[in-house]
């Protein structure tokens, strides 16, 4: 599933269509009135988390690429049986095609549809608001909290695993038990890693920078990572039981340092 940085790249790649007028629209999506799009100007192209947004004259289109969605500019997939979910054709002869995705028609008032402070890639991002939302869910597991799009719009499973490794937090830690300074660090890294992801993705080196996601050995401890489908989201987690502490910590024995609770067997 494309994460927020990949949607930012999509937005940048299709910037050429902003200001152009559609002459035709077609596709298999049942949620778009194709015959009403002819003559509509593209007023803005935006992104919010994992959503790509096309604001038109009297409505907006929200595109979610789901797990395997793709898009093409000025070319089509010759062997795709299902065909595009949406194809937009413009007055200069150019075209934009979306495949295997979810498309919805929403209000053109995007500021009423979205609180931009919740998008980790947006200039309006608010770390304070994210902290407030986290503190309102003290029993939520860290692995689930980072994937909550109402808190961290744009964060996906890769970012989740890498952020938790960066800040040394075990994915099964409960939010309310994570120390305040460490929770602030988690929020900050959710945004910082997203921009690192963006830079590495553009350079074609993203996977080379993964320290935890899909890895087998912890680069800090040189021991095997544990892995499992953890939390309510049941997404894959890759983590080190030694350097990623699980909060709350077990009470220390006299003269010893706090320890992480015993990790349940990975699934």
From TrEMBL:
<dbReference type="Pfam" id="PF06831">
    <property type="entry name" value="H2TH"/>
</dbReference>
<keyword id="KW-0456">Lyase</keyword>
<comment type="similarity">
    <text>Belongs to the FPG family.</text>
</comment>
<dbReference type="InterPro" id="IPR015886">
    <property type="entry name" value="H2TH_FPG"/>
</dbReference>
<dbReference type="GO" id="GO:0008534">
    <property type="term" value="F:oxidized purine nucleobase lesion DNA N-glycosylase activity"/>
</dbReference>
<dbReference type="GO" id="GO:0006284">
    <property type="term" value="P:base-excision repair"/>
</dbReference>
<dbReference type="InterPro" id="IPR035937">
    <property type="entry name" value="FPG_N"/>
</dbReference>
<keyword id="KW-0238">DNA-binding</keyword>
<keyword id="KW-0511">Multifunctional enzyme</keyword>
<dbReference type="InterPro" id="IPR012319">
    <property type="entry name" value="FPG_cat"/>
</dbReference>
<dbReference type="GO" id="GO:0008270">
    <property type="term" value="F:zinc ion binding"/>
</dbReference>
<keyword id="KW-0227">DNA damage</keyword>
<dbReference type="GO" id="GO:0003684">
    <property type="term" value="F:damaged DNA binding"/>
</dbReference>
<feature type="domain" description="Formamidopyrimidine-DNA glycosylase catalytic">
    <location>
        <begin position="2"/>
        <end position="98"/>
    </location>
</feature>
<keyword id="KW-0326">Glycosidase</keyword>
<keyword id="KW-0234">DNA repair</keyword>
<dbReference type="Pfam" id="PF01149">
    <property type="entry name" value="Fapy_DNA_glyco"/>
</dbReference>
<dbReference type="InterPro" id="IPR010979">
    <property type="entry name" value="Ribosomal_uS13-like_H2TH"/>
</dbReference>
<protein>
    <submittedName>
        <fullName>Formamidopyrimidine-DNA glycosylase</fullName>
        <ecNumber>3.2.2.23</ecNumber>
        <ecNumber>4.2.99.18</ecNumber>
    </submittedName>
</protein>
<keyword id="KW-0378">Hydrolase</keyword>
<dbReference type="GO" id="GO:0140078">
    <property type="term" value="F:class I DNA-(apurinic or apyrimidinic site) endonuclease activity"/>
</dbReference>
């Amino acid at each position: 599933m494309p994460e927020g940085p990949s949607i930012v790249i999509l937005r940048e790649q299709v910037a050429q269509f902003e200001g152009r007028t559609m002459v035709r629209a077609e596709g298999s999506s049942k949620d778009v009135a194709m015959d009403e799009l002819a003559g509509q100007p593209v007023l803005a192209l935006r992104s919010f988390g994992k959503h790509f947004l096309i604001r038109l004259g009297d409505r907006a289109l929200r595109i979610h690429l789901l797990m395997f969605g793709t898009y093409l500019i000025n070319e089509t997939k010759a062997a795709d049986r299902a065909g595009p979910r949406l194809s937009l054709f413009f007055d200069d002869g150019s075209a934009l095609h979306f495949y295997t995705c979810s498309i919805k028609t929403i209000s053109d008032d995007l500021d009423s549809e979205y609180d931009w402070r919740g998008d980790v890639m947006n200039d309006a991002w608010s770390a304070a608001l994210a902290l407030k939302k986290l503190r309102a869910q003290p029993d939520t597991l860290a692995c689930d909290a980072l994937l909550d799009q109402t808190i961290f719009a744009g964060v996906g499973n890769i970012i989740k695993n890498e952020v938790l490794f960066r800040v040394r937090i075990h994915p099964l830690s409960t939010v309310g038990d994570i120390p305040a300074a460490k929770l602030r660090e988690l929020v900050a890294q959710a945004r910082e890693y997203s921009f690192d992801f963006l830079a590495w993705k553009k350079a074609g080196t993203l996977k080379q920078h993964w320290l935890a996601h899909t890895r087998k050995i912890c680069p800090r401890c040189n021991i095997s990572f544990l892995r499992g489908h953890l939390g309510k989201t049941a997404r894959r987690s890759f983590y080190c039981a030694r350097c990623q502490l699980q909060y709350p910590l077990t009470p220390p024995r006299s003269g010893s340092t706090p320890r992480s609770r015993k990790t349940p067997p990975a699934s």
